[in-house]
Write a structure and sequence with these properties.
single chain; Ferritin; Rossmann fold
């Protein structure tokens, strides 16, 4: 049976189980099972390679011990083992990161995992289907890459989970031009399921890894943080599939839940698509300087990225249009960005890139820390010929970025080879300062086009509504901060 057929069969079996409710739970259930199977496949390889091999978890909890045999335990016996033995043991595993890093990975992966299935016979059927996929076979692993991406796309229909997925075309383009190298520390501070990290790993491996020692170096240079359990588990599994034996540097937590001033680690390369359009929980903004406080997630991440980027370090960040034209705290952040970094390029993406879960227009900001901005190049990415909008069946493709790649040039010579054309134009920092750091600068080579296509008009209307909602949230945030400041002043006067 093909990998795709196996995955589809697994989803069909889960639909029969009364305990699994909806796509999100099906994906959560499949994720911990996949993790354990991939983990064990990696263990089998390490057992052959290492003379002093020792299992990082008790052997009875390895996949081969309880799940590999198609005629093994099933029904209530299987459920009792999973719920009363396997999960409690892995959640409470004693595995210090320094002494047992792979055991620590397992414990972290199961910290918030849950077995949703209530029918042990159906669970055995799911396990048997997974056993038809051989993760020690390089061809199967290659095929699984496509299936893995399908699983991520399925997240789009699982409520808010869709926010983790960045189209592969954008991920690959960003990594291609940012060009992370062997030995450079790479981080995605909102890594979701690990798309940027996996792409960065592959880029370094394909271009710079020559020896076994190089591969060990590469494994240690990948870092990520993810707030939610399901994408974190998927990310950890993704890293193992890509050959990272101990993905302990992919942490489960909120990157913003730490004072900005307490960060003592800096990174060479930051590639990320931080959540936008949402707000952080109360108190998170207190981790940032008082004049830069906001609860808008994207604004906080941009501040963090500027702070933890090394001098000479490179960053590429996907941000909404609201960041470009927003005022208040957004203006202060953009001023800081252009003073501390060379914001050399903004690629303006067309509508529909993140369909179906948002119509908000997005941009990719590329900057290098250590020198102030003198000029900002804008590149307006066009739809390919014959395409009016992207959707699930017609997503953006990496090949579309060939014109940007040909035009890109070299930062070392100040992008001397770049020329203005119908898609690209340059704006001086003096002009940006005059605009009060409003970076929403239209293409001077494109006149206004009147559009009568009803589908595109509806898409534009949806986008406008989302932008209005985003602006409303910003206004609430500003008013909330002003009210808080006013109350503090009143309390201070009363105290006097």
């Amino acid at each position: 049976m093909s990998v795709s057929s196996a995955i589809k069969s697994i989803q069909d079996i889960m639909r029969k189980d009364a305990g699994v409710d909806g796509d999100a739970q099906r994906l959560g259930q499949m994720s911990w099972l996949l993790f354990l199977k991939v983990f064990d496949a990696q263990e089998e390889e390490l057992e052959l390679e290492l003379d002093n091999y020792k299992a990082p978890i008790p052997e009875q909890y390895l996949w081969r011990s309880w799940a590999q045999d198609a005629e093994g335990i099933t029904g209530e016996e299987l459920l009792d083992f999973v719920n009363d033995v396997l999960f409690p043991s892995l959640k409470n595993l004693t595995a210090p990161i320094a002494l047992n890093p792979r055991g620590h990975v397992v414990k972290a992966a199961f910290s918030d995992a849950f077995n949703y299935m209530k029918n042990g016979t159906l669970l055995r059927q799911v396990i048997n289907k997974l056993n038809e996929i051989d993760f020690t076979d390089s061809n199967e692993r290659h095929l699984f890459g496509d299936i893995y991406e399908q699983i991520l796309k399925d997240l789009q229909s699982a409520g808010n989970s869709g926010e983790f997925y960045t189209p592969r075309a954008i991920t690959k383009f960003i990594v291609e031009v940012t060009d992370p190298k062997l030995g450079e520390t790479i981080i995605d501070p909102a890594c979701g399921t690990g798309g940027f990290l996996a792409c960065s790993f592959d880029h370094v491996k394909d271009n710079y890894v020559k020896t076994t020692e190089d591969h060990q170096t590469l494994q240690k240079q990948i870092h990520g943080v993810e707030k939610k359990q399901l994408p974190h588990l998927l990310c950890t599994t993704n890293m193992m599939l890509h050959g990272i034996e101990v993905p302990v540097q992919v942490k489960h937590g909120n990157t913003l839940n730490k004072p900005l001033s307490s960060w003592d680690q800096e990174f060479d390369v930051i590639v990320t698509n931080p959540p936008f359009g949402g707000t952080e929980e109360d108190g998170i903004e207190k981790n940032f300087p008082s004049e830069m406080q906001t609860r808008e997630t994207a604004d906080l991440f941009l501040q963090l990225i500027i702070e933890v980027l090394k001098n000479g370090g490179r960053a590429a960040v996907v941000l909404p249009d609201g960041t470009l034209f927003g005022e208040g705290v957004k203006t202060k952040i953009k001023k800081m960005l252009t003073e501390e970094c060379n914001l050399h390029t903004i690629v303006r993406l067309p509508n529909g890139v993140f369909n179906p879960y948002t119509g908000i227009k997005t941009n990719i900001l590329f900057f290098t820390k250590g020198q102030p901005t003198k000029d900002v190049w804008f590149y307006e990415h066009p739809y390919p010929e014959g395409v009016k909008n992207y959707n699930k069946t017609k997503p953006m493709k990496f090949e579309e970025f060939s014109t940007e790649l040909d035009w890109w040039g070299n930062e070392q010579d100040g992008f001397a080879s770049r020329i203005e054309n119908n898609q690209a134009w340059k704006v001086s920092i003096d002009e940006i300062i005059k605009r009060n750091f409003n970076l929403d600068i239209k293409n001077p080579y494109q006149g206004e086009v009147i559009n009568h296509d009803p589908q595109e008009l509806l898409a534009n209307y949806k986008q406008q509504q989302e932008e209005i909602s985003e602006l409303r949230n910003q206004l609430k945030d500003i008013l909330g901060n002003a009210l808080s400041s006013s109350n503090s002043s009143i309390e201070s006067n009363e105290a006097k």
